[in-house]
Structures are given as structure tokens and as C-alpha cells.
Amino acid sequence: MNERLQGLADERFVTAFYGVLDRRTRVMTYANAGHPYPMRFVARTGAVQELSVPGFMLGIVPGEQYREKTIQLEPGDRLCFFTDGLVEARNEVGEGYGTDRLQRAFARHGSCTADVLTERLLADQRAFRGDQKLSDDVTLVVGEVSREE
């Protein structure tokens, strides 16, 4: 994919996060190409972890070898995937929402169902920015690791 995107568009880029989850073992292997790091809510402890693995955006560096990481998920864990528009939203004084605020909101509401958690994270960001319009699109996907095999 990286090689196919080389030189297609000046000053344009593509970010991507790619993960493969083995639902039986709950092991997820993932790689990142310049995308905001997804987050994991650890149900057992209430901790929030970034799924961090560095990588350049697609189409930028010829021959880039993207590293993979593997994580063992647990029943009840939540995963939060989002675009940069969510964390780059600004309030009336120009302050950015940021990943720290998102992490705190994720920790506060992480034990909610995926649907409720999604709504609460979006509501937290909306409350922060008030009447300020978004300057970028926002995508947020929250998933829950099943307690069943």
C-alpha cells in the first residue's frame, strides 16, 4: 500500500491503523502509519493504554517497513479508534481537546457499553469545544472485547 501511494498527490497523505484480532485467543497484532494511537481501556484495572507503534504516513517514505506489535486483550476491555479531528477540535480560546482529555474521558466512562461510551466521548468533546465548529471530520469507533469465545 505504501508503495502504491507514492507520488499520487502532492501535499496529501494517508494515515492508517491496521489490526488483526484473533477472537479465540483475544490476541491483536497491529501496525500504524501515522494515525493517532488508538486506546485500550483495561476492564480489570480501569487503566487506559495507548496502542503505540510508530510509523510514517502511507506514501511518504519509500520502502518503509512498518513494525508490528502484539497485545493480549482481556474480556470486557474496550478499544477506542479515532481520527485526528476528534482530538484537534478547539474551544473558544483556541485550546485543543487533545489526547490527554480523551484519555481521561475514556478512563471515566470506560466501563460503559460501547454504544454509551461512544456517546459520552463525543459529548465530552462537544462540551469542551462549545459552539466552535469542527475544522476536520471526526470518526470514532469503540469496540468491546467479548466475554465469550
Largest sheet: 4 strands, antiparallel
DSSP summary: helix tally: 4
Helix/strand structural class: alpha+beta
Question: How many domain regions?
Answer: 1
Radius of gyration: 17 Å
Question: How confident overall, as mean pLDDT?
Answer: 92
One letter per element, helices H and strands E, the order comes to HEEEEEEHHHE
Poorly predicted residue ranges: none
- Which CATH-level-2 architecture? 4-Layer Sandwich
Could you name the CATH topology?
Phosphatase 2c, domain 1
In total, how many beta strands? 7
How far apart the termini lie comes to: 32 Å
Strand order of the largest sheet: 4-3-6-7
- Residues in β-strands, percent: 15-25%
What would you note in describing this structure?
This protein is α+β, with helices and mostly antiparallel strands. It has one domain (2-144): PPM-type phosphatase domain (Phosphatase 2c, domain 1, 4-Layer Sandwich). The chain contains four helices and seven strands. It has helices at 2-5, 84-87, 98-109, 114-129, and strands at residues 16-22, 27-33, 39-41, 48-50, 69-72, 78-82, 140-144. Helix 3 crosses helix 4. The longest helix is centred in the C-terminal third of the chain and has 16 residues, at 114-129. The protein is flat and about 45 Å long. The two termini are 32 Å apart. The mean pLDDT is 92.
